[in-house]
Write a structure and sequence with these properties.
By secondary structure, the chain is an all-alpha fold. The chain has one domain. The protein is built from twelve helices and no strands.
């Protein structure tokens, strides 16, 4: 596809929005895919191209988080391999399986996540050391492998699913869960991007221009997350979950 000045402006502006949303919560991929397809990319190419900007936005966010020493590398080394293997698996099977059943799972998870955040907000604001410090189990490895499959396959909403697991199962507060979420996405997405590229499903020019906006949005969001903390992130996530539910109901 050929880039024009109009498409460049659209890609950078939408990239800013997506980078901001994805860094604080998730779901920005819906915007990216919609923009890419609006500009003429086939759905599968849009899905692959989107991962270029994701790599750049998460590199930006992780850099800010690392400067503030917020990354728990001990936990990451346990879960990075399962989620990477899952991402590769999901990307490899993307062309063969309908994503409808993934959408049902995503819808259910997001709604339950939102209800839990409203009914018991303390668990999202205060870390639970008993869960954080416990020994990593095989079940947790399986869960992260399945999350990797989902991310490698469609990626839409993977941020919400990671946040839900990191808070409800692993016991992190929302700030630290958000930091880890960005690291896990950064670990896994380059592998799925490589597979999509080998399949010829990546438009590098669109992806790299889109990434300019993503980097700016991610940088601003990371600073806000560090400055405002878990309560701020909770309000942002709740607002975005509301938008996601309206999308699922067809209102938006």
């Amino acid at each position: 596809m050929e880039l024009t000045w109009i498409s460049i402006i659209i890609l950078i502006c939408s990239g800013f929005i997506v980078g901001f949303i994805n860094t604080l919560a998730g779901g920005g991929t819906v915007v990216s895919l919609s923009v890419f397809m609006f500009l003429g990319l086939p759905p599968m190419v849009a899905n692959g191209t989107n991962r270029i900007a994701i790599v750049f936005q998460n590199t930006t966010a992780v850099t800010y988080f690392q400067k503030n020493k917020l990354i728990d590398w001990q936990k990451i080394k346990h879960f990075a391999i399962p989620i990477i293997l899952g991402s590769i698996t999901g990307a490899a099977i993307a062309g063969y399986i309908s994503n409808r059943w993934f959408q049902y799972i995503f819808a259910g998870m997001v709604i339950l996540f939102g209800i839990s955040m409203i009914c018991n907000p303390d668990r999202y604001i205060h870390e639970r050391p008993g869960l954080v410090d416990r020994k990593v189990s095989s079940l947790q490895h399986i869960v992260f492998f399945l999350l990797g499959i989902y991310g490698g396959f469609v990626h839409v909403g993977i941020g919400y699913l990671l946040l839900a697991v990191l808070v409800l199962i692993n016991g992190y507060d929302l700030l630290k869960a958000n930091v880890l979420k960005n690291v896990f996405v950064l670990c896994s997405v380059p592998f799925s991007l490589l597979i999509y590229a080998l399949q010829g499903n990546v438009c590098w020019s669109f992806g790299l221009v889109h990434a300019i906006g993503n980097i700016i949005g991610a940088g601003i969001a990371a600073r806000l997350a560090i400055k405002k903390g878990a309560p701020f992130i909770r309000y942002i996530v709740l607002a975005l979950i509301g938008i996601v539910i309206l999308q699922l109901l067809g209102v938006i």
